[in-house]
Amino acid sequence: MNNLSQEEAEVIQYVRRFANEEVKPLAKEIDIKMEVPDKLIKRMHELGLFASYIPKEYGGYGMSFSFLASVIEELSKACPSTALVLDGALTLFAEPVLMFGSEELKKKYLTRVVNGEIGGLALTEPGAGSDAAAIRTTAQKVGSDYVINGTKIFISNGRLARFYVVDVVTDPERKHKGISTFVVDAETPGLKISRDIHKLGIRGSSTVELVFENVKVPESNLVGKLNEGFKVVMETLDAGRIGIAAQALGIAEGALDEAIKYAAQRKQFGKPITDFEGIQFMIADMGTQIEAARLLVYEAAARWDRHEDCIKISSMAKLFASDAAMKITTESLQLFGGYGYTTDMDAERHMRDAKITQIYEGTNQIQRVIIARKMLEESGI
Ligand SMILES: Cc1cc2nc3c(=O)[nH]c(=O)nc-3n(C[C@H](O)[C@H](O)[C@H](O)COP(=O)(O)OP(=O)(O)OC[C@H]3O[C@@H](n4cnc5c(N)ncnc54)[C@H](O)[C@@H]3O)c2cc1C
Q1: 230-379 fold
Q2: Do the domains spanning 120-229 and 230-379 agree at the CATH topology level?
Q3: pTM for the full model?
């Protein structure tokens, strides 16, 4: 159903076992300590997960985007913060370099991703969220370098990243046609993490504010052409949204699995609560939403693999899967009754983790704007 090759489907069995046996037992601690432990990141590297989506010519395994979505789903069932480390490194950093980077840039950075070095995407600014074209961080040409100044906020993989894809203004007169994209090494002088941002959910994921003060990058670190960075951003987000949809799907599945187990053994009025039709209907609705979300996620991933236009389908997958994840995690908590509301159970964490999927990589209001715009365009009216 999810278009995996036989080899990919076999590897997913290992990923599922890794997620169940090594990631899931740590999920609560990751939430409390607000950190994904190094040992888990090392294990993901040892298992070849960072290399999975990188083409063979850069040292990777050249597996499909559908495979990557499936890995994100499996990891998110166990711990979406852990999944986001991989998702950010591959969909937000590696994908734009792969799609638009020069051969030199691909060789330089994708081989490092294969070696387990993590990347991130720095687009959002305090004054530019949904309106990404309103970014104010500038890059000015000085000799053969560009000098970056500005502030980026909410950057995932912040403290883990060795490099970021950064969106900047190179021609302020031309609005979105004056935006360019560069790869910037985290160690570059002048680039600082000004603060950690603490959150409701996915608390293990490092989210930071980045300040750029006269940060020098070579012109060769340009991703795509000068002043064509907005296209890089938009296409990166098309892929990224499929990753977030897969994350939402995994969160929903993880929550429902636990809720069903609990409900089957919880007795009230002398019988398991799963004997009550009211509970059965809740389970049926949640299962149906998960199935529908899965169909959308893997249809979007398959179209990405076939290099088709994915603007509408990736927004639809992200919109539907994240709304479903929010509903399902809320209803799953309900199945635990009062116990679900306590931190003794994982249900409250699942609900907190689900919420972000309706917000990042474009809020669900923005997804609706994108879907409607595309539908109206397609209607030819
Ligand atoms: C935990 C976390 C991790 C993140 N990771 C990254 C990252 O790695 N890299 C990165 O660059 N960014 C990242 N982001 C930023 C994220 O993508 C933005 O927060 C998001 O796009 C929304 O922007 P905003 O927060 O500025 O909200 P705003 O754009 O200020 O929106 C506020 C509200 O107005 C609504 N709204 C805005 N415009 C419209 C409209 N036209 N029609 C209808 N409603 C509208 C929004 O839906 C929202 O409800 C992250 C954010 C969080 C919270």
Answers
A1: Butyryl-CoA Dehydrogenase, subunit A; domain 3 (1.20.140)
A2: no
A3: 0.98
Residue 29: active-site member: no
Fold classification of 6-117 (topology level): Butyryl-Coa Dehydrogenase, subunit A; domain 1 (1.10.540)
Tens of pLDDT, residues 89-141: 999 999 999 999 999 999 999 999 999 999 999 999 999 999 999 999 999 99
Annotated domain spans of the chain: 6-117, 120-229, 230-379
28's tokens:
């609560």
The residue contributing the CA closest to ligand 1 atom 9 is 155
Closest C-alpha among 16, 1, 13, 129 to residue 83: 16
Residue recorded with tokens 């395994």? 61
Facing residues of 216 across strands? 147
Helix (H, G, I), strand (E, B) or coil at 165: strand
CA 31 to centroid of ligand 1, rounded, Å: 22
Burial of 336 (0-12, 13-18, 19+ CB in 10 A): buried
Q: What is the pLDDT of residues 357-376, one digit of tens each?
A: 999 999 999 999 999 999 99
